[in-house]
Amino acid sequence: MTVSQRLLRISLLLIFPLAALSAPAMADSLTISYTSSQNQTALVGATGFTVVTFFGSITNNTGASIAFNTVGSGPVTPDPYVAGFVGAFPFTFPPFTLGPGANTGNVALATVTLNPFDPSLTYPSTRLIKVEAVIPSGVLGGTILGENDAMIQVVSSVPEPPTVLLFASSLLGLVILSRKSRIARPGNLA
Predict the structure, then answer these.
(1) Is residue 16 part of a domain?
(2) Which of the four, 50, 139, 149, 155, has the lowest number of CB atoms within 10 Å?
(3) How far apart (Å, rounded) are the C-alpha atoms in residues 72 and 54?
(4) Closest listed residue to residue 53, CA positions, set 69, 70, 36
(5) 5: in domain
(6) What digits encode the pLDDT tens for the residues 3-30?
(7) Domain for residue 55, yes or no?
(8) From CA 161, how far away is CA 13, in angstroms rounded?
(9) Which of 77, 80, 85, 86 is nearest to 115 (CA)?
(10) Which residues span the domain enclosing 133?
(11) Whole-angstrom Cα distance, residue 66 to residue 98?
């Protein structure tokens, strides 16, 4: 037997027992499903915040109870469009526990608060919101058990100045045309 064959046998003898002792993967332990649209449009105004809520449920796909919290994030932190995010099961102690094969039922998976209209931002804008179920560990996170994306199309209800100017000039044009047509009718003295 050559040296390389001996090394292969030794490495296989070491790898198989370690693989059997390793913990099972936690991916897809929880499934996040939406009952509302995952793609919503939100109209923001000049004053006040706009709230967008995503409804759905979380299902435990395992044969054991799972304790978790929900978190969310936007495309950048902080996101200039997003003022706040509240998950269905925010970080609390103890975390929310879902039994084996159980489902949360229909809940507000994510409540996203959008900032009022800001003329320095581009509208419309699409914001990606990640909803994640995590096993809490440490101060700022943990192991992700399930995640799903949602989208918000942020649209402004505040007309941009060129739009207002165009609308005003067309109204002025209609007024001028109506006056000219009234003056030009037979029987009208100018």
Answers:
(1) no
(2) 139
(3) 12
(4) 36
(5) no
(6) 555 544 554 444 444 333 333 434 468 9
(7) yes
(8) 73
(9) 80
(10) 24-158
(11) 5
Q: 76 forms bridges with which residues in the sheet?
A: none
- The SS3 assignment for 167 reads helix
CA distance 114 to 80: 9
User: Which residue in the block uniquely carries the two structure tokens 């003898």?
Assistant: 13
DSSP string for residues in 64-76: S-EEEEEEEE-SS
Determine, yes or no, domain membership for 166. Answer: yes
What burial class does residue 125 get, using C-beta atoms within 10 Å of its C-beta: 0-12 exposed, 13-18 middle, 19+ buried? middle
Q: What is the tally of structural domains in the chain? A: 2
Burial of 86 (0-12, 13-18, 19+ CB in 10 A): middle
pTM of the model: 0.67
- Beta strand ranges found along 90-141 (DSSP E): 96-98, 107-114, 125-136
Per-residue pLDDT tens over the stretch 147-167: 888 999 999 987 655 655 666
Closest CA to 29 of 62, 64, 71, 58: 62
Which two structure tokens, joined as six digits, stand for 5?
Answer: 């064959």
